[in-house]
Amino acid sequence: xxxxxxxxxxDDRRVPDGDSARLSDSSDEALRGQSRATHAGxxxxxxxxxxxxFAWALLATAGVLVLAVWASHQxxxxxxxxxxxxxxxxxxxxxxxxASLSMTRSFRQYTEGLEYGDTLTxxxxxWGSSRTRSSSSLVTDSAAGATAFSCGKKSYNGAISMLxxxxxxxxxxxxxxKAGYKTGLVVTTDIxxxxxxxxxxxxxxxxxxxxxxxxxVGNGPLGRVVDLMFGGGRCxxxxxxxxxxxxxxxxxxxxxxxxxYGWNYIDNRSAFDEFWEGKKEVPLPMLGLFAYYDIPFExxxxxxxxxxxxxxxxxxxxxxxxxxxxxxSEQGFFLMIEGSRIDHAGHGNDPAAQVREVLExxxxxxxxxxxxxxxxxPGVLVATSDHETGGLAVARQVNADYxxxxxxxxxxxxxxxxxEYLAHRLHGHIAQSSDHxxxxxxxxxxxxxxxxxxxxxDASDEELTKVASSPEDAQPLFAEMISVRAQIGWSxxxxxxxxxxxxxxGGPGSEAIRGNVExxxxxxxxxxxxxxxxxAITKELNEKMDxxxxxxxxxxxxxxxxVDGTSGEAEDHWAAHQRMDV
Length: 582
Fold this sequence. Notes:
This protein has helices at about 20-30, 40-75, 100-110, 140-150, 170-180, 195-200, 210-215, 255-260, 270-275, 300, 310-325, 340-345, 350-375, 410-415, 420-430, 440-455, 460-470, 475-485, 520-530, 535-545, 575-580, and strands spanning about 85-90, 125-130, 180-190, 230, 265, 285-290, 335-340, 380-385, 390, 495, 500-505, 515-520. Helix 11 runs parallel beside helix 13 and helix 17 (about 460-470) packs antiparallel against helix 18. The strands form two sheets. A ten-stranded mixed beta sheet has the order 5-6-4-3-7-1-8-11-2-12, sandwiched between helices. It has a two-stranded antiparallel sheet with strand order 9-10. The protein is α/β, with parallel strands linked by helices.
């Protein structure tokens, strides 16, 4: 028997010297697995014990690995819900890809004489990137992109918070309203356009603007879910046949909003300024429609500041109004702000217009950060794009020679008007002029539009002839004149499939959208941060909408019948926008 002085591995077997050789042989046989003892008795039990120990070790290792993977997944995808009152501001830079940021950053540094290290506010809050494909295409449109944000679900291009099976999906804004939050939408485009529509309406295709308008003011399956809306698109709310109306029916949605759903309504800058300048508190619900279609590009709007408010002005006013409305509430607010016309500048391949749109969006982003910093209520800012537009390249090979590694922000700085605005002026001039000679038209185009508006003094006769002979193509021709001189490249007048950036103030759970994520992950984070039940809203929507989905315009006898299971090919919204402006 071993005692306290026996080495740990000492053999405690007592063997007579005469038997030592036999024991040695037996040990050798055991090591080779040939001993009789390895096949019976005590050795059989040892083998069983070893097998059980091995199985236990294997299961324990697997358990540890599974636990580690689960803990890592939980850390990335879930978080302790913030307790108490909170605000959430979600910003969408429609059509802004990474190249737009690079172009705008360099433009700002050039025009303001800044060092290369002086970056945009957005750059300082870079968080990750988002994959943008829809359920129907590798290249998404704004409707499917916004549905990913609002519902946290993939859907087909053209869908306004509808799923591929033609059923509605509840949105984070609707769920927030149900939970007691105040809600708002601020945009620079038509308020019935895809992005705002996806938070407060449900239709099969984005061209159903008339139905979107009535749902947004409250005439839908859930009633009124928005407390504040600022933007353009006034014509969608006025009856057909009236001054400024573009609806296909005779419904006066403004009167419906005021009389049936209690909205306050303003439609001009002077009325807005009473709230912007703090002369009055904003009464909710508030509907402010400041343009018949879209609010002009910032490049043009700044010359019409007495007519149209800017994105940052509307956003600041909305933030103050929603904070005031929730100061005595247990819940905060959810506000969606869209830099809508970054996308339109991309569609038009107009870099001069786009850099000003991105700069205004960056100013708005900073304004939201400042608000969060000063507010007594905790809050988070999340910002991203639905897609990139134009296939922008901050470089261009203009001839067959070896490409130059440069581009010229000065060309963009010289422009004082957008190509869209100059084309609009040209069309008006032609409509009013009785002299349609090509030479006189070329002279007007050069001296009244190109030189003062684009800042271009070397337009070729070939360029002038193209515009004069095809005035309907004036917008892309003007934009091309700017782009080629700045050496800015474009690959499409549509969208591209490039990943887009995510920006954030940071906050509880925001690690869930760090790195490269799906656009639906952004939507899931929005609902998780607010701790609202979007699935319950989806269930309620499906219970309230009948098989023909005649929602919207309830009680007005003009319901829109959509055949179940069909979404159709949506007409490109930029083409429709261009026709509307012409």
